């Protein structure tokens, strides 16, 4: 398998490389007109209007998606999914732990493809015109491990870990990029009831030391890249004695032990499997209440916390999510590239396993045909795999949208006109009637305009999940239209094993995160300080999640656990999220605020930083943004990571001279242009005057997990950014 590159989520240049679709040969771009399209243009302009005469204009009556129910705990307004009278806890009878679920899936689907990895044909280095070197890979077809082949490998690896010297009661950490061995290692640990500590591959050194020492990990399963990091820091780890590294394609060299790591037992993944095959150990399967995973958060508000998840917690999420993906089956293929140390990806892959679906692994840097690491002429992972299901985060989807729009804007007037007409008609159809959204008009525009755009992700995607952060309404609708598939927003947290709410596929609204998933309750409770009450119209309040997916709390942090986890008189656990939501009439939730993001300005107005940032992210000049509000001032300011393509495009039209991108960002006329554009987006988003930044600082360097300014899930690390740009923020207020 090719090196996964930086850890965490795909770099923002991935799905839409700086050249985006423009990097494809003209015949593949899908936004140029051939003779057939030219001949169809008049039909394309006339037929939609004729169809609209026979398509109902009235909106379909709102479907009830969640109903009010009475439960224990703090008074508030509680709802559950309307399709189930009680909460679901297992996907099928008897599958009450991840070990049993995996074993039964492997036996039921033994002949089906399970885990797929692409063949690495060649790696080479290319040099750009400015002298920079780039590694490029040529990749082949996917090679598959079947479900039937996976089970004995897990059994052997499990026995091998025991033979290596790992003892019952000791913890194992997985510290690696997303790849098949990650899942095999996880399941091998469960086979002996070993607790697993999951750690982001992008976690900083201090956080890594904290996580391994706090959980007293004795064995680390890692890839070669992370092994090198561990060995170089070995004298800082108090309990680690064993390291198991995943080999890469063509890997034959042995790691060099340094420092105190000379006392470690370091073995390759395949050798540990051989050890287990030679010395088999009977399975010691876990119980539903046993801790399966201690998942360390990415530390957006300080040092990461370890969330303790039981087997029953994660299985409940699988049970709930399985009910809301229509026709989830062995016919589905899932593209896996997000970090498995994030609860979103872990829950998604375990759900695919329960359904017997194929999981094809990709890399953030090889995802599409124009990704940074892909050799020209080589298919990206999505093109080769042609997935039916994908998960993504808003930062990635925003870049997909921006890349397509950039290409459209750079085409001729006729192509741009056709695209804009098609897009507007599709939006009108979607928002006007359900039939119009998915009927004949959709087929027409998909054929004329959107077919080639779909090929960016393989052409077969039937549904996508967005999670990890709020998805803008504009991006959600754009993905709906251009890729012709529903994109469901999910809401959940590590503390609730991902699942909380999820948009149902026939819900074509935007800006909401759906009704409760069938395995949990969603309750709103009053937050008096913010003046959010369940008696408001619509009902508003802090979101509290209850049910079998709510975790045990934070590892060795009882004070914080007691603060946000509660148990009612029926022994049901509830997690207080700190997010503010409101119920719509159909029972769906909309996230409208966050308690930690509220700042009171000098004049008494309250500003929700996250809410404003979500709106400002819609500005074409903005790649990332942090709004800053100071209680000693009556206005807000903002740090903006500028979008290079958009800003350089404006500079060319405006005739602005500059030496490099950093110079362009520093020019007063550039700041003036961005501030004006931000103001327009803010007004369109109905922000109040005091919420709109009066000054901005433009930054040319992106915020990455490696820089420590965003998490692996691309969430803003507000305190880290504030500390890094203290002088700039002071200057904006001067």
UniProtKB/TrEMBL annotation:
Assigned keywords, A-Z: ATP-binding, Ligase, Nucleotide-binding
Single GO cellular component term: membrane
Catalytic activity: a long-chain fatty acid + ATP + CoA = a long-chain fatty acyl-CoA + AMP + diphosphate
Secretion signal, residue range per the UniProt entry: none
Domain of life from the UniProt record: Eukaryota
InterPro entries: AMP-binding_CS, AMP-dep_synth/lig_dom, ANL_N_sf
Keyword ATP-binding: yes
AMP-dependent synthetase/ligase domain residues: 136-555
Keyword Mitochondrion: no
GO molecular function list: ATP binding; long-chain fatty acid-CoA ligase activity
Pfam family, one: AMP-binding
Family the entry assigns: Belongs to the ATP-dependent AMP-binding enzyme family.
Protein name listed in UniProt: AMP-dependent synthetase/ligase domain-containing protein
Taxonomic placement: Eukaryota, Viridiplantae, Streptophyta, Embryophyta, Bryophyta
